[in-house]
């Protein structure tokens, strides 16, 4: 892979002198969805698939970007200072945003860069291809300019960039999961204070299977921001009757006790999801630690129901994948993962049932939706690195 990427760099940029090759993973969230901007818990893990980059400094005062996933765009060249979001730069607004964020935070980028990217995460699938590009770019800046920034700061700068430069009010989960990824472990992160713990995932006799709906998110970003403001509205109402900082501070019982303070009934069900999902995540990690994978699976299923009925971010594609998965032998748990509105599902499937799972769920999906889903049996990998 390293050699192929370097050769491609040479073709695109003329020579490959002084280049280094980097990798950052994608992520999948096992449970804890739409809790990260509500001060709740999440439980994601980094994957072995992700984004590669070949990079070097240049002395031309420009940033040159090239993606093997968007070859038709060719090399995109922008000044190495005064970064601005320009819709025609398309995917390059992610790396540009990270460079902008580092400069905003006082880390001066003193020269231009030539960077070639290649990702093997399906685009727009909800496995965080964009956060992977962001964290990878931050990691390249840290390495090439020797910035004294740790991986959690890198994640925070990338989130800042996505919020302020790309206009998506995302939480910290994706960037954190990618920056802090650890092979065969998921990260139990409390987004209220960024305290975290690694939990080993040894799915004895079972595998993680991702099903990609191939439905592009489309209006997802604006609906995402809308969900976020509905939670904020509910929180503001609740704070008039109870002293809390985040929805994640409440147990289910406390939520039911104060629920009537939330004026808008839609905001009330959105908040209900955030509170219950946070508690489910805490329970799921406890079950996993106790070796009770069945309970973990049931909590995954309950998470999907809540995302479908209360948070309303699933849609017919994700519901078909998950509901058909539930009917299959050997499925321990199945749910949508990521922001929703399209994207992927994650299922824990017994080894011997994986083939029939892929066939049966794939057939049912094609029959009902009219086009095919893609399936990936994934492994949990490490965070960013030089390769
Ligand atoms: C997207 C966001 C995350 C998180 C999830 C939903 O992936 O980037 O911050 O909010 O949606 O859990």
Distance between the termini: 10 Å
CATH topology of one domain: Ribosomal Protein S5, domain 2
Q: Which of globular, elongated, flat, extended, rod-shaped describes the shape?
A: globular
The residue-averaged pLDDT reads 96
CATH class wording of one domain: Alpha Beta
CATH architecture of one domain: 2-Layer Sandwich
**Which sequence of strands runs across the widest sheet?**
5-4-6-3-1-13
List the secondary-structure elements in sequence, H or E: HEEEEEHEHHHEEEHHHHHEEHEE
Range of helix content: 40-55%
Biggest sheet architecture: 6 strands, mixed
Count of strand segments: 13
Radius of gyration: 21 Å
Q: Compounds present?
A: alpha-D-galactopyranose
Count of helical stretches? 11
SSE topology sketch:
Layout (H helix, E strand, L loop, with lengths): L1 H12 L6 E10 L11 E2 L1 E15 L3 E6 L8 E4 L13 H12 L7 E8 L9 H17 L5 H14 L8 H7 L5 E6 L4 E6 L5 E7 L7 H19 L13 H7 L6 H25 L3 H17 L5 H12 L4 E7 L6 E7 L3 H16 L4 E5 L6 E2 L1
Parallel strand pairs: 4-6
Antiparallel strand pairs: 1-3, 1-13, 2-7, 3-6, 4-5, 7-8, 9-11, 9-12, 10-11
The protein binds alpha-D-galactopyranose (GLA).
Alpha-D-galactopyranose binds next to helix 5.
Q: Would you mind describing this structure in some detail?
A:
The chain has a domain of about 200 residues: Ribosomal Protein S5, domain 2, CATH 3.30.230.10. It has about 375 residues and is an alpha+beta fold. It contains 11 helices and 13 strands. The model has no long low-confidence stretch (mean pLDDT about 95). The longest helix is centred in the last third of the chain and has 25 residues. It is about 40% helix and about 20% strand. The protein binds alpha-D-galactopyranose. The site of alpha-D-galactopyranose has 10 residues, from α5.
């Amino acid at each position: 892979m390293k050699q192929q990427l370097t050769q491609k760099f040479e073709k695109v940029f003329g020579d490959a002198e002084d280049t280094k090759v980097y990798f950052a993973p994608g992520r999948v969230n096992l449970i804890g969805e739409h809790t990260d901007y509500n001060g709740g818990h999440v439980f994601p893990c980094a994957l072995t698939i992700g984004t590669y980059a070949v990079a070097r400094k240049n002395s031309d005062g420009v940033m040159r970007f090239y993606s093997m996933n968007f070859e038709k765009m060719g090399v995109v060249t922008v000044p190495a200072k005064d970064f601005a979001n320009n819709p025609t730069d398309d995917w390059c607004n992610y790396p540009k945003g990270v460079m902008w964020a580092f400069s905003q935070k006082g880390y001066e980028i003193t020269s231009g860069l030539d960077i070639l990217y290649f990702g093997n995460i399906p685009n727009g699938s909800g496995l965080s291809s964009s956060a992977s590009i962001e964290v990878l770019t931050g990691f390249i800046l840290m390495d090439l300019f020797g910035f004294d920034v740790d991986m959690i700061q890198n994640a925070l700068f990338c989130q800042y960039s996505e919020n302020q430069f790309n206009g998506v009010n995302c939480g910290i989960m994706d960037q954190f999961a990618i920056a802090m990824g650890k092979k065969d472990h998921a990260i139990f992160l409390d987004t209220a204070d960024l305290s975290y713990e690694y939990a080993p995932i040894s799915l004895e006799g079972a595998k993680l299977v991702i099903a990609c709906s191939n439905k592009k998110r489309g209006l997802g970003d604006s609906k995402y921001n809308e969900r976020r403001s509905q939670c904020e509205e509910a929180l503001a109402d609740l704070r008039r009757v109870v002293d809390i900082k985040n929805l994640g501070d409440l147990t289910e019982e406390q939520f039911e006790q104060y629920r009537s303070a939330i004026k808008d009934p839609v905001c009330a069900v959105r908040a209900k999801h955030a509170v219950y999902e946070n508690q489910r995540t805490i329970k799921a990690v406890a079950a996993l630690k106790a070796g009770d994978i069945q309970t973990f699976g049931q909590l995954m299923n309950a998470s999907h129901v809540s995302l479908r009925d209360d948070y309303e971010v699933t849609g017919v594609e994700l519901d078909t994948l998950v509901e058909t998965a539930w009917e299959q032998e050997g499925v321990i748990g199945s749910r949508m993962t990521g922001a929703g509105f399209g994207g992927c599902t994650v299922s824990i499937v017994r080894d011997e049932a994986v083939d029939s799972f892929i066939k049966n769920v794939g057939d049912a999906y094609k029959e009902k939706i009219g086009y095919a889903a893609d399936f990936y049996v994934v492994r949990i990998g490490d965070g960013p690195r030089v390769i």
